[in-house]
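Pasting as-is:
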Amino acid sequence: MKIGVLAIQGSVFEHQQILKNLGAEIFAIRNPNDFPKKLDGIIFPGGESTAIGKIFSENGLDKKLKKEILSGLPVFSTCAGTILLANCGSEFSLKVGDFEVKRNFFGSQLQSFQTELKINSVAEKFPAVFIRAPQICKIGKPVQVLAKFDNKPVLIRNKNILAATFHPELTSDQRLHQFFLEKICR
């Protein structure tokens, strides 16, 4: 399976390591020319959404990503990556998902925390790291909520998009990435 990782800033290496462990062929995507002929999916990592968005809009990658995702390319986003897919949340949002987010909803860097989540179809207990995490505040009808924290959606599926507000890549648990490969990419 060929999986791209948006490799501009953030937890790129962590996602790549998990994908390698799961047997995927990995492509670092930094500009429009980095796309191979066929990708089975792409990951938008956590990091700083403004930094990532500024760079991908300057080099034209935003237009390529938007076109590919709207054409059905499976995408898995974590934290900042989710902000970049939402209908609002950042001036650089691609507006490809039927959901809205509020940035830094769970607090500043100092309020970062780890908890366990029940994720439908994945795990009864899944470790989730929240670092300046956004909140998914509004969802459309085709959106399926897979996990909640404090009764708020923190993991959703919107057609070909799997969007998390937390960082599964910062734990040793690979089940969410495996779910992405097996259920969203295939």
